[in-house]
Amino acid sequence: MLEDKNASRTPLEQLGEFGLIKHLTKDFELTHPSSLKGIGDDAAVLDLSAKKTVISTDLLIEGVHFDLSYMPLKHLGYKSVIVNLSDVYAMNAMATQITVSIAVSNRFPLEALEEFYSGVALACKIYGVDMVGGDTTSSTKGMLVSITAIGQVTDEKLVMRTGAKENDLLVVTGDLGGAYLGLQVLEREKQVFKVDPNNQPDLEPYSYIVERQLKPEARKDIVELLEKLEVHPTSMIDISDGLSSEILHLCEQSDVGCNLYEDKIPLDPTVISTSEEFKMDSTMVALSGGEDYELLFTINQKEFPKIKGNPNLTVVGHMTHKNEGAHLISRNGSKIPLIAQGWNSFNGTE
Amino acid sequence: MLEDKNASRTPLEQLGEFGLIKHLTKDFELTHPSSLKGIGDDAAVLDLSAKKTVISTDLLIEGVHFDLSYMPLKHLGYKSVIVNLSDVYAMNAMATQITVSIAVSNRFPLEALEEFYSGVALACKIYGVDMVGGDTTSSTKGMLVSITAIGQVTDEKLVMRTGAKENDLLVVTGDLGGAYLGLQVLEREKQVFKVDPNNQPDLEPYSYIVERQLKPEARKDIVELLEKLEVHPTSMIDISDGLSSEILHLCEQSDVGCNLYEDKIPLDPTVISTSEEFKMDSTMVALSGGEDYELLFTINQKEFPKIKGNPNLTVVGHMTHKNEGAHLISRNGSKIPLIAQGWNSFNGTE
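Above: the input entities. Below: the structure tokens describing the complete assembly.
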């Protein structure tokens, strides 16, 4: 509903596979000293000798992870990169390179792929990463994207999910629940559009949460901030599946419990008002809504003065002994076990 | 037609996404000193400080790159890894790690994914690579596989596509055309099976070429052989799209021409007999049939004594001045321009 249906259409067969790759990647430049050779050989060549390397990969499928009826292709390209960079930053590493593979059915003209790659290029530029390789092929149905991100980090800075200790503070960046509610708004407008294609949706009141869904950012700035503040998290994870699910990962992998305080969970006013409009509980939205791509980390209490008052960082709880389990302490003081209601993609049908 | 239809079926929803990843990857061990941390965090952690790193990625789609009606899932897992390792060896590098992402529709039970991963595990074991990460998700149609392979190589050993010089010898490993003809045999049997499901195909006479198609190998042994022989190729590429297409890549990227001699192209007897049976020209099969995963490289003539008589290596031509172009010198001495008839995946329909 957001795309220009009158745009020019160049069939992909016209270019062939190699011509297509060349065309789509011609404007990508290598900027990292560690990117020795990008696209054009059997493999890219990198010099990753300076530090430790982290590598993460994600697969995004049309109809499962994204809906092109409201996701512009440029945004999809951008978001596909962000999703992967977020995993690199969650290791307290700096992202350096990505590979981008896509498969599309022949309903996609060249111009659609150009749009997608313009989003990839923008993310590369903003986050300072090089696209060094990938694959472009046809699919029998729809579009799919597979991205692998590489980052570098020193031994001292590397943060895993495994180091949280009892009494550590639990800290979250930004605010939560926006991306999920943005998706609800877009889905609702899609249904309205189906009934009345002439209806122009007014998304203005929802612009913050719609942007959180369509054009999320990864928290590179937080990795830089932690360095500046000389804060070394004991454990860290990115919030892609909802706060509850990520806390349970940290607890399980660090062998600790957790108390999360409902009244501390950072929510944007739009999240609160839209939750009310959709008759949803805003805490549940933050706990179980995904795709916020904020960071969740733990720090030793001694580090608290360094982060105190920082508008990007909110202490939402503390880690406990493993035997205490993981709980939400609600506004009225009751203790509710946290459960993973993260999104399970295996409910689709063929 | 090769699968046991009575096997047990565990729906994937039963495990959930994290349970599924854990289950499928529980038997994978890390063996490389450079694999510091595999699956289980936001990203894998590698120490790639010793040498230069090469990275390559491929996307394989059911109905485009493979057909599960004759490709057993274990073979698919194996071949998916091989296809990627081949690119690493084509840089004269040693493969060290892979990431494996798959998406499947809900027609696939857990047991199917176990089969697939058993093939991945076998390839990892035989080639000495560690699986360090990946993604597992659902698709709206069929199965798709995305693999990224990482390798390491010293500066001195790295071989690109760009270094071939006039008068260099053109060398090919193994023999060509088998994988393509194996596919033709399998496609023919599939048609026979459709008409008469009780007909048991006799694939015995075609076992070599069917195996070339269903269970190809990557030429790690050649990288080791080149080291032992102290041969340093001036350029190298793997043969995934047919000899003709790969020669043209080397010529274009090294800025040279080439004479390829028809009577030198190594063909297995099964390739010759099956070509006759299918009324195909065996030279065309070698030139344009893909998926052999042999290596094609150039060496300075001075190096010839080192490779002379080696049964794995065949000199098939020599590089010329760029202005002479790239030609096949046929058995009767005529000079035919080489054209890329490599497989173009963009002819499918949605």
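Note for the figure: Residues 110-127 of chain B form the longest helix (18 residues).
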